[in-house]
Structures are given as C-alpha cells and as structure tokens.
Amino acid sequence: MKKIGILNHHISHVISTMGHNDTLAIGDCGLPIPDETQRIDLALIKDLPRFIDTLKAILLELQIEEVYIATETTEVSKDIFEEIKKEIGDVKITLISHEELKDKLKACKAVIRTGEQTPYANIILKSGVVF
Question: What pTM does this model have?
Fold first, then answer.
C-alpha cells in the first residue's frame, strides 16, 4: 500500500505521466468538463473536498511553472485567489477569461472535480521541470 503522497490512484497516475508543459485542472463542482477530457470526480457533498485542500495536495507532487486562472476569480472570489497565490508562491499567474479557461480544459490531461461551491474556484496547472 502506498505510504505517502496522493492516495487517489487516478490523480497519482495522471501526475506520474505528466511531462513539461502538460496541464492539469482543478475545478469547482459546477465547472463544465469537456467529454474528451478525463474527469477525476472527488466531489462528495457541498464543499467536500475543498478546492484549496485539493490544490495543496496536488502541489506536494506536481512541479508547476505557470497557472491559468479566470479573471473572474480575482473579482468574484478574492479569498480563493489570495489562497491560490499563497500556495503557489512565485509561480507565474496568467489571467484569462472564464470562457478561455473552459476552452483550455480540452487540452488538459485531466480535470479534478472538487465539491467546492465557491464561484470561479478553478485553476489550470502547467507542469514544470524539476531541477
């Protein structure tokens, strides 16, 4: 049995197969996920698991160099945006429209759906290189 790290085998597999510049999204429970993109559904009940807790877990294992966040997140869900900035540190943030973010989901290796119900609690993580 796996001793540390992400225990969900779907998430663990996706992260282990990601290369430089591949993308992985984490979304709230209302984010529309394209049919062609792998869905990893963690949503259990309202706000479980939380978006930020899921992000923290992913960042323990995935090296990132950039994130994509909807501009609407910065306007509507300022607390989530501040928590994201705290968790990612000096990683580049690229702000795009929510429509652009939804379009970029088609190219993601997977979208992790959380139970989060805060509007615009969504992010796309671009994998980086471990030095």
Answer: 0.97
Catalytic, out of 9, 10, 20, 98: 20
Predicted confidence (pLDDT) per residue in 25-59, tens digit: 999 999 999 999 999 999 999 999 999 999 999 99
For the chain, the 3-state helix, strand and coil shares in percent, each to the nearest 5, are: 35, 25, 40
- pLDDT cut 70: percent of the chain above it: 100
Burial annotation 94-126 (CB, 10 A radius, 16+ → b, else e): eebebeebbebbeebbbbbbbbbebbbbbbbbb
Asked if 20 is an active-site residue, the reply is yes
Structure tokens at 26: 């984490």
